[in-house]
Amino acid sequence: MHGAASRDTVVHETCGRVVGAVGRLLRACEEDGSVRPGLAPQDVPLLMGFLGRVGGYALGRDRDRRVSDLVANGRRTGGG
Known about the structure:
By secondary structure, the protein is mainly alpha-helical. It has helices spanning about 1-30, 45-55, 60-75.
């Protein structure tokens, strides 16, 4: 049990550092106008995990393109 608790602590701390770094990057991008304001940094690792799971399946390639387009265009100012 001690190993699982320790692993959870490491994962939590690492995720916190990643989200913090993503937050700084998003703020800088908001300031220069390359992304729209209000994006949530904690959503980025979740989205990366999701995209890693949907990619590579022949039947899902159209869906992969749609989701990738949604992600790429949804983060831009003006949505497109």
